Each structure stands twice: as C-alpha cells, then as structure tokens.
C-alpha cells in the first residue's frame, strides 16, 4: 500500500468541489501529464432527488447537503440573523441553487477592471462565459453551443408567469428576449442550467465527465484544516478525512482555494494569512499580514411580496401523483420549475447606469426560504437589490477549523439601498395592479394591508428581508493594500497559492452569481496553465 504522502500528492491541489472547483479540476486535468487532486468536505455525489429535481432545491436547506450558515445579527435588518445556505457536496452550491443562468451586465466586469482587476473587464471575461455554454437557443453573437454547461428555457412555466410578463409590460417594463444580451433592462422568462428537465450542476457539466481520467483524484469528506506553508510558499494542505484521520496533501505546483466566499477566507485565516491583529485575537499565529482577507462581503438582499391566487395555477401541486408521473415519464410539469420562472430588471430611479433591482417572479408561496406552507395557491414577486452599496465582513474567533466563520453583510445600512428596496416593493404592487394580474391576483398576503406609506414599507423590509444566497467579495482581486489576490488570482505575499471562486469578485454582479463563478473557474484555469 502507498503511504499517505504518496497517495495525497499532486501538481495541483484544489480545495472545494463547488462551481469554480469543478471547472478547475476538469480543465486542469485535460492535460494527461498534470496530476490534480480535488478535496471536498461534503460527501454528496449529486444523486439525491432533492438535488436532481429542480423544484425541490429548497428541501436541501438545513440538511446534510447544506453548510447551513447564518449571519451575525444584522444592524440594518432589525438585528436578525439571516440564513445563508451553501451547498455541501460535489457541485457545491450549483447542486443547491435555483439553476438561474444570469451573467450580469458588461458594466459589472468593466467596473471590476476599473477597481484594479486588470484583464477582468467584459472584453476579458466574455470568452469564458461562451466557452462553458451550450445554449438550447443556438449559437449567436451573445451565446454559444458545445460547451459543458447546458442552458435551456424552462420546460413548463406556469400560465401565470406569462401573465406576470404581460403585467410588467403594462406597468412600463419592456419585454425582452434575452437578459444576457447587451441590454439587461426589461422582463423575460428565465434561462436555466438544466438538461432535459433535471438540474445540470457544475458537477454534471464539468467534473463527472472528467472522473474517468487517471490523473484526477477526488476525495470526498475531506475537511481542510489549513494551508501548509514553507519559506513563504504554499506546499499543500492539511485535512481530516471521512474516517477522522489527519492527512496532508502535497502540491508540487500550486494550491488553489475554491471553497467559496465563506470557506476560502476562513482557510486563509486559519493558515495565518489575514489581518494580523485579528488573527492573534482568534488564537492564530500570523504568517502573512493581509488585512483585506474577509473584508468586502456582499450579497443581494431580497424581499418577498406575495398574493393569493384564488384560481389556482401555481406549482403548489408539484408533488401530486399526476405531477410526479409527468416528471418521471416526460420530464415536464411543475417539478421542472426552478420556482423563480421570470425576471424583470429595472432601475429604481432615473440616472442610474444600469438596473439596480431584479424582480424574481415565482408562481408559488415562498416564505422563510420555502419552509413555510400555505393552504392554497399563491404567487411571489421578489424585488432584489442587485447593486448594493452596503459592505460586510467575515472573521474567525478560534483556530478550530470545525467552527464556522462569523460574518455580517450590513445589508440595508446604506440609505440608498433601503430607498431602492422601498421602490421595489411599490413597483411590485404596481405590476400586480396592471394587465392580466389585476384580475388573477387575490388578496395581498405580504406586505399585506396596513403597510402603505414609505415608513411602513421600510419597517416591513427590515423585519422580513432575507439574502438571496449570493455571497461574494471576501478575497477580492485588486492591486491596492486591501486586495487579497492579484489579477492572476495569486494570494499576495504567498507563492504557489491562489483563490478562484466568488470570493475574488471586487463587486457583486447585477444578477445571480453562479454563471459568473463558473466563468471565474474557466479563466483561472487559463491563468494557471500560462504559469505552468
């Protein structure tokens, strides 16, 4: 039998089999001369029905498939702790999310470049979106076919979803064919990362086809404790395997952290890389004083507005025998729904350079992250602030890797952020009063009667707002003293160590973050290969 050192040795050691990690493992292992080791703390392999069946995604929350994080008490949200699920298993959060394929605006990436992320402007990232994509609509100036990531139209949107789009148009929001085109503003049906009515995660698209390669090894149930450092260089990582045994994985070339916006900064801090004084307070000996680690945390706050549907037509009956049979035999019907079936991107006030609100329309009652039931049919319109000014941070309070990191988003502590959310709630109500929804919608359940003027709406938002599961920014790209990685994603002050995941985003994109995270994995693979 080979010893532990020989067994866990590779050219590249990747920590985290989430969206970016799956891409990196697949792309780097395309070279048969390169040995790749992928470590994943979770044990799930993407087969659970709550993973594969699109409409069941929220059933993963608070289970073994979920890291089950929550923020510290949020000062802008009535001191509440906000739930922040993260996928635990192969595919990471791409195996848990709502499968919504949204790139964001070209402006988002040009702003990254303006903040010091050289090469990450739209002209520098566009090709990586296209490299991944296999779009059902075919190749065009804005889309591609033949990539690993299948992107399809929803197979069975509910009729009320079309009514939402008509109502949005009646309220002055133009109908558009493609929110991933040059212009995002407008309302459209969602495109989703599905293949034939089932989830198509980063595991399905990238990692699973690569598992047959002899130069790729995947270890599940591997809880990484920290990065091994020697002479200012990362030489590997320490981890505990599924049997509780301490192991070391040695990296001949590089260690790449792809553990997400919470996991990657936590691992840096546990390794002594971060703000020195804060590390000492947590009982960790500083190795590299990098004050930006854990700073710049951003997420999208979301508020649900809900109306009863007295005539039915929601996806509340998705688990009826008829719907289950339809899914099993035809891969159609309400179980193929991603819950959020349509979008509207709008500007909360004139003069903004791009939409700062993204409305998610869901033909279902979606309260408390889908854990609360309703005796009847309902629809949800959720205004989401996609350009928040508020910034939070993440930190550790112990050298124990099994303790979750602590973090706060500071959501809605900036006045402009609250003003935009209030405008969003008012516009949601206007949409429901417009076009066909005026006859379809019943009584307003949330915010509900009595929440009328701006102060009432603001109080209701602080009382009920939640996060949309899009944490980013805690190891941001840049060239200033608070940047954690340089534009090549190399950790400042450490050789042989990179971060490649949503944590490197300087600014949160104007939309759902899975597609941009996959793009980061694609571009990171090229950056790494250039240096090999």
TrEMBL record:
Keywords: FAD, Flavoprotein. PROSITE patterns: GMC_OXRED_1, GMC_OXRED_2, PROKAR_LIPOPROTEIN. Its cofactor is FAD. Coiled coil: none annotated. Residues 136-158 are annotated as: Disordered. InterPro entries: FAD/NAD-bd_sf, GMC_OxRdtase, GMC_OxRdtase_N, GMC_OxRtase_C. One of its GO terms (molecular function) is oxidoreductase activity, acting on CH-OH group of donors. Residues 87-110, 260-274 form the Glucose-methanol-choline oxidoreductase N-terminal domain. Belongs to the GMC oxidoreductase family. This is Unannotated protein. It comes from freshwater metagenome. The lineage of its organism: unclassified sequences, metagenomes, ecological metagenomes.
């Amino acid at each position: 039998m080979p010893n532990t050192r020989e067994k866990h040795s590779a050219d590249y050691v990747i920590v985290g089999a989430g969206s970016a990690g799956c891409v990196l493992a697949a792309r780097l292992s395309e070279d048969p001369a390169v040995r790749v080791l992928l470590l994943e703390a979770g044990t799930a392999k993407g087969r659970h029905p709550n993973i594969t069946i699109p409409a069941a995604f929220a059933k993963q929350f608070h289970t073994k498939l979920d890291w089950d994080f929550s923020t510290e008490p949020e000062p802008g949200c009535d001191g509440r702790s906000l739930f922040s699920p993260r996928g635990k298993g192969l595919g990471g959060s791409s195996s848990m999310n709502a499968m919504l394929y949204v790139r964001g605006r070209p402006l988002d990436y040009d702003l990254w470049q303006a903040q010091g992320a050289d090469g990450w402007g739209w002209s520098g990232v566009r090709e990586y979106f296209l490299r991944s994509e296999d779009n059902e609509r075919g190749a065009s100036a804005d889309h591609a076919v033949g990539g690993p990531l299948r992107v399809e139209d929803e197979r069975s949107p509910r009729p009320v979803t079309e009514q939402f789009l008509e109502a949005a148009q009646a309220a002055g929001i133009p109908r558009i064919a493609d929110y991933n085109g040059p212009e995002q503003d407008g309302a459209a049906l969602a495109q989703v990362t599905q293949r034939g009515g089932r989830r198509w995660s980063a595991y399905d698209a990238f990692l699973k086809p690569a598992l047959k390669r002899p130069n790729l090894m995947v270890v599940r149930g591997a809880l990484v404790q920290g990065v091994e450092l020697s002479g200012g260089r990362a030489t590997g990582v320490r981890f505990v395997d599924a049997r509780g045994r301490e192991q070391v994985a040695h990296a001949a070339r590089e260690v790449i952290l792809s553990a997400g916006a919470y996991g990657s900064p936590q691992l840096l801090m546990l390794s002594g890389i971060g703000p020195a004084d804060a590390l000492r307070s947590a009982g960790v000996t500083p190795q590299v004083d990098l004050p930006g680690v854990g700073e710049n945390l951003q997420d999208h706050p979301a508020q649900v507005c809900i109306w009863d549907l007295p005539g039915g037509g929601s996806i509340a009956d998705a688990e009826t025998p008829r719907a289950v049979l339809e899914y099993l035999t035809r891969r159609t019907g309400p179980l193929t729904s991603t819950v959020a079936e349509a979008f509207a991107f709008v500007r909360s006030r004139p003069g903004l350079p791009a939409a700062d609100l993204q409305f998610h329309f869901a033909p279902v009652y979606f309260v408390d992250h889908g854990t609360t039931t309703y005796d009847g049919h309902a629809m949800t319109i959720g205004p989401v602030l996609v350009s928040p000014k508020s910034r939070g941070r993440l930190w550790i309070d112990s050298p124990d890797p099994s303790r979750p990191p602590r973090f706060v988003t500071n959501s809605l502590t900036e006045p402009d952020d609250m003003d935009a959310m209030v405008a969003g709630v008012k516009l949601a109500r206007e949409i429901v009063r417009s076009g066909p929804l005026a006859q379809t919608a019943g009584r307003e359940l949330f915010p509900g009667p009595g929440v009328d003027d701006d102060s009432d709406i603001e109080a209701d938002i602080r009382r009920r707002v939640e996060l949309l599961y899009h944490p980013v920014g805690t190891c941001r790209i840049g060239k200033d003293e608070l940047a954690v990685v340089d534009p090549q994603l190399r950790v400042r002050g450490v050789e042989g160590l990179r971060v490649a995941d949503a944590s490197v985003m300087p600014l949160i994109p104007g939309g759902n973050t899975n597609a941009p995270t996959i793009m980061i994995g694609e571009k990171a693979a090229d950056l790494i290969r250039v240096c090999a």
